[in-house]
Task: structure prediction
Amino acid sequence: MRSMGIRAAPKNITFAIYDSDERRLINVEDIKVPLAFTIPDALKYIRSNLLDILREYQVSRAGIRVTESNAQRLNIDRIQIEGVIQEAFASSALKYYYVGQISSISARIGIERSDFKKYINGQLNFEEVENWKSLSESQREAVFSALGAIHD
Result:
C-alpha cells in the first residue's frame, strides 16, 4: 500500500510517497507554485498537481500536517493551501486520509509528542527511514504524515 504525506508552506508543498509493503520511501519532492500566479491560480495548480501525483503513484492513503491551532502567527496562504489539499483528497480516489497536527501524527507513528520536533530538526535519527539525516525539515514532516496515514 502506498501512502502520501504532505507539509504545506506558503509558496510550495512538500510531499512524500511511502510504500508500506516494501517499507521504503519512494519519493520526496516539492511542488513549487510559480510566483506569477494569483492565489486562485496557485490553488488550482496545487490541486491539479496533487491529483496527478495521487494517480501516478497509485496512492491509497494520505495525511497532511496542518498548522497548529495555537500557532503564534497564522499564515493565511498556508491555511488556504491546506484547505485545497483537503478538498483534493476528498474528491480523489483515496481510500482514507487524515488531517494531523503534531500530537495526532506522533500518536499515529508511535513516538512521544515531545520527540516530534527532535526528529524533525535532526536531533534524533528516525531509523525506520533510510537517509533520514539527508532530508530537510519539511521533508521529514511530510514523511511522518505519510507514515501516519498507514495507521487509522
